[in-house]
Amino acid sequence: MEFKKCARCGCFFMSANNVCCNCESKDRLDISRVNSVLDESISFNSIQDLSIASGVNINNLNRYIQNKQISDLNINL
Ligand SMILES: [Zn+2]
Q1: Cα-to-centroid distance, 23 and ligand 1 (Å)
Q2: pLDDT per position in the chain (77 positions), as tens?
Q3: How far is the CA of 43 from the centre of ligand 1 (A)?
Q4: How far from chain centre, in Å, is Cα 41?
Q5: 3-class DSSP state for residue 4?
Q6: Which residues crowd ion ligand 1, with CB under 5 Å?
Q7: What is the pTM of this model?
């Protein structure tokens, strides 16, 4: 296994994931927050709206979208 740079905090770690083990739990929390916001709301016009509604920052949102970790995304990107 190689050293990787954590996609969230930038530290180096060894794992098969994209984030270090500290950030894994933060990611999970963010994703569940985003999913519950998406469950409740109709749709968002932009990532920014979703970021404000969920309290998750845009960089992380983009990463979850890229990794397909967010379900049911009603955003017109
Ligand atoms: Zn990290």
Answers
A1: 4
A2: 678 999 999 999 988 888 999 999 999 999 999 988 888 866 778 889 999 999 999 999 999 988 888 865 655 45
A3: 30
A4: 18
A5: strand
A6: 6, 8-9, 20, 23
A7: 0.81
